[in-house]
Specification:
CATH class: Few Secondary Structures
Keywords: Ribonucleoprotein, Ribosomal protein
Radius of gyration: 15 Å
Number of strands: 3
GO molecular function: structural constituent of ribosome
Strand order of the largest sheet: 1-2-3
Number of helices: 3
Strand content: 15-25%
Shape: elongated
Number of domains: 1
GO cellular component, one term: cytosolic large ribosomal subunit
Protein name: Large ribosomal subunit protein bL35
Structural class: alpha+beta
Largest sheet: 3 strands, antiparallel
CATH architecture: Irregular
Helix content: 25-40%
Family: Belongs to the bacterial ribosomal protein bL35 family.
CATH topology: Factor Xa Inhibitor
Length: 66
């Protein structure tokens, strides 16, 4: 059976952690930061986990991501 292909766009946006959960960067942190509150900017730091509703679709796109 041939190897499965990884969706390269998804591979650039999602990483799996040690427990197998998929992590992704947060949106709304690129520009126009001056009008966003400090609390909002602070909470946009770091990564977020992919939601349960999207997990099945993402597993199909990233077959070798732990």
């Amino acid at each position: 059976m041939p190897k499965m292909k990884t969706n390269r766009a998804a591979a650039k946006r999602f990483r799996s952690n040690g427990k197998g959960a998929l992590r992704h960067g947060r949106s709304n942190k690129r520009h126009m930061l001056t009008h966003k509150s400090a609390r909002r900017r602070r909470q946009l730091r770091g990564n977020a986990r992919a939601g349960a509703a999207d997990l099945g679709r993402l597993r199909g796109m990233l077959p070798y991501s732990g």
